Amino acid sequence: xxxxxxxxxxxxxxxxxxxxxxxxxxxxxxxxxxxxxxxxxxxxxxxxxxxxxxxxxxxxxxxxxxxxxxxxxxxxxxxxxxxxxxxxxxxxxxxxxxxxxxxxxxxxxxxxxxxxxxxxxxxxxxxxxxxxxxxxxxxxxxxxxxxxxxxxxxxxxxxxxxxxxxxxxxxxxxxxxxxxxxxxxxxxxxxxxxxxxxxxxxxxxxxxxxxxxxxxxxxxxxxxxxxxxxxxxxxxxxxxxxxxxxxxxxxxxxxxxxxxx
Length: 261
What we know:
This protein is of the alpha/beta class. The chain has helices spanning 40-47, 70-75, 93-99, 109-113, 117-136, 152-165, 182-199, 210-216, 234-237, 241-248, 256-259, and strands spanning 2-11, 14-24, 29-33, 55-60, 63-64, 78-80, 170-174, 202-206, 219-224, 227-232. The strands form two sheets. A six-stranded mixed beta sheet has the order 6-7-8-3-9-10, with helices on both faces. Strands 2-1-4-5 form a four-stranded antiparallel beta sheet, with helices on one face.
């Protein structure tokens, strides 16, 4: 579904991504991990078209993403959440979710003003998708709350919910577990595991919580200083010497889970 081939990105001499090859298969969960500064979020920004690489190809379902502006990315089926929730904090949770469906049918201004059938159909579809996300993420009790008044962990869930409402084929999650309590992290991990079946979307996950990563992933890619240093199933990543060295600064004993980088 998603393929990056030989992708490199630099900022004023600083290499953020170096010759990266990455693939995400349809219906799978792939995690991208590594120490701070490894280039993980830069990869998500490349896919989202916030950045343009100096070299390489980025393709999604055989389409060249580098030819598209950022606003077209969501239209072809890629949605994301962010490290810090990017919500309309004065609007309700429901209204924030409805924003995710804005591109799905695009009634005209006239159709919206006159409440013509296409406008009503779009509103019905948007509410159905928002209600589904509220149920899936267990947010029904706060649907009418002002988003900015919610605890940080709930704001993260609203951000994820808005991405799901966008009807993605590929969901990009940037540190969704950050700032959550342990019980909420475990619940979130279970929800992420069900995204492919519930929404028909593959997931590319960036997160520092190795408990979440190792639990949900079909495939794990490890980056360090912009380069891929390992790729494999979660059961193999924990004891790799090069991965331990990247996380711990040495090849001493332990596992990646112990590092919690």
